[in-house]
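Late entry, evening session. Most of the bench is empty. Finally got around to the prediction I had been postponing all week. Sequence below, unchanged from the version circulated by S.P.
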Amino acid sequence: TAVVYRANNVIYSLTEDDQGRIWAASCGGLMQLNPETGTIRYYYERAYEEPLNKLYAIIKLRHADSLLVGTDDGVRFFCLRTMQWMPDSVHWKTESVLNGLASIRAIRYFMEDANGTVWVGTEGRGLARINYINKELETIEPVNQIARSVKHVVRRVRDLLLATNNGLLIYDDLTNKVKRQVYIRGAEASNVCNAIQLDQQGYIWISSNRGLYKLDEAFRVDQEYNTGNGLTFSEFNPTSTLADPEGRLYFGGMEGITVFYPQQLRSTTYSPAPVVTGILINSQELERNLHPNLLHNIRLNHKQNFLTIRFAVPNYSREANCMFSYRLKGLDDNWSEPSENAEAVFTSLPPGPYQFELRSANSDGVWSEEIKQLGIEIQLPWWRHRGLHVAVVLVLAGLISFAVRHRINKIRQEAILRSQMAELEIKGLHTQMNPHFIFNALNSIKEMIWKDDKRNASRYLSKFAMLIRTSLEHSRQPFISIQQCIDHLEQYLEMEKLRFDDFTYRIETEEEILSGDVSIAPMLVQPLVENAIWHGLRNKQQDRQLVVRFFRKGEFIICEVDDNGVGIRQTMLNRKEQKQVHKSVGLENIRERLAVLNEKYQMNCSLFIADKSELGTYQDSGTLAILALSV
């Protein structure tokens, strides 16, 4: 009972040297006990202004004749050969190690491996390791990122088990990784672990400030022990544990030492069914003549949707450790996390049928076979009844049906009107094409009369009359066949040959589209041919050639008008130099008609005109017009 510097001799850690002397880290400093003489001696640190007082951890190093001592200020070495404290600068040769050593403070536990690695557990600084043989020091960051207080370290095969302020950590020092974090009381509760011990059956025992926990090899909590099922106290001290050769486990706590044989502990297999002790509706007790536990069903209105159900277990000997789990089927079919809380609260329950189910576990974790059930029905408000809904739906359906029929009739009338307008627009464009063609034809006749070419003028006029008749017939039809279009072109081209001495043409057509049921809009191709002759071939002196091709490409009929004239680019330049302002009425009419066809018949017709010099695949000059018509 020695007292040093007004400090009692509270002992935190013990170790034994090779001579059998007991060394203690105590509140009064480093203490030596000689078992043979029973004498006690203290060794003080004289290198500081204040004598080294509180010591928390101590260990006899396996590969050195020294003690490693842990304090709030860091680690110290005590030489057993000279019985003196060793300065840090003597043992640690490098400045980097000295600086790292200064950062390790509030030391609480040492554990040495066979290779000379000492694992250091601290309060607030996490885990570190010191190799005094290789003069190496390292802080274990993967551990320190999870827990800042490491209270106990135990080697289990290749892993280290760490008791920390944030649960049990399984650390692999070969890969420097935390393999797993185990919460002994759930992630939201206090998970302070103070000491770790392994029993002979392979179970892992954890002491805490809430009792003892038994974990299986998969680190699942198998059983919890506290004052509710056998312990006289539940708060245990850090690192205070021991296992003797006979298999007994020792755990030191605030009120003494707990000693037991793990294999002799027996669980209570009987677990009574839970009972309902109270039902609150909107924070008011449910008024019934029967006890709440005798009720099988309750029926509530839509405003009574705030429920509190209280329950208990008729296990009067060890009721403190009883656990409950419940679910409300219809709201959530999953069981709640086991808890000691003896009530279930449900807020803002929507109308509908529910089934409340409750189960309980005794102090040894054995769940009851019987499940307490209670039927709950919350009625719909009057405005949500099915009959009212059906009536409202029928009324709305009638109104919607009337509105839809009225809208459909209106849309049909508008569609008929648009169709009629489109027909009139197409016919109007047809009539616009004829004056444009007639103007060009009359110019040709006038030119022949000037040249006094009466014979050709007469022939031209005859062919012109036949062409006018065919054009009028086509203008009355929305669509004509490919053969009709070719015949119309033949009449026009034969007429134009009378005007040019050196002019040849060729019409190429696939047999498939001639024999098939294929039709196109009239007066689309002839204006393109006329445009090629008057603006392309007319300005060329000789070898005037025109090719018209009809072929199918996918869902389109393609008409190509290919001439070897001067080209559309040169024509535009000539007009610009001569300051002529001319608007191509024929091409404009074609584009307008294509737009109307696309809108009315949901077609995808298009017109492309380019100078052959820009296409790259043609050697001669001229213009290529491509008309794509939907089939």
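Two things to note before I forget:
The CA atoms of residues 204 and 264 lie 16 Å apart.
The radius of gyration is 52 Å.
Will write this up properly tomorrow.
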